[in-house]
Amino acid sequence: MTAHVLACRACREPIEDPDDAVYLGHEEGNSGPGWDIHAHRAHIDQAGPDPVAERAVAGVLIVKALLP
C-alpha cells in the first residue's frame, strides 16, 4: 500500500513532514467524496480560498440581494 502524500495548496509542492502540514478544509469532488486541503505552516497566509468558489458564492449573493 502506498502512503498518502499531502500537497501544499499554496506552492503545490509535497509536504514531506506531516507535522508541517496544516489542515485548511475539505473540498468536495464532482464525483466521489472529495479531498482534504493542506498547506505548509509557512504558506498558510498564501493559501487563500478558491477563487472559483468565491465567484460562485458572490454571484448567488448578488442575485439574492437584487430579488424583491
3D structure, described in words:
The protein is built from one helix and four strands. A two-stranded antiparallel sheet has the order 1-2. It has a two-stranded antiparallel ribbon with strand order 3-4. With 68 residues, the protein is of the alpha+beta class. 24% of the residues lie in helices and 25% in strands. The N and C termini lie far apart (56 Å).
H/E topology pattern: EEEEH
Most strands sheet: 2 strands, antiparallel
Span of the ends, CA to CA: 56 Å
Output the number of helix runs. 1
As laid out across the biggest beta sheet, the strand order is: 1-2
Strand proportion, as a percent range, falls in 25-35%
What proportion of the residues is helical, as a percent range? 10-25%
Radius of gyration: 16 Å
Q: Name the overall outline.
A: elongated
Average pLDDT rating: 86
Strand-pairing-aware structural class? alpha+beta
- Detail the poorly predicted runs: none
Number of strands: 4
What are the key terms here?
alpha+beta; two-stranded antiparallel ribbon; two-stranded antiparallel sheet; 1 helix; 4 strands; elongated
Short description:
With 68 residues, this protein is of the alpha+beta class. Helix content is 24%, strand content 25%. 7% of the residues are buried.
Question: SSE layout and pairings?
Answer:
Blueprint: E1 6-7, E2 14-15, E3 21-27, E4 35-40, H1 51-66
Antiparallel strand pairs: 1-2, 3-4
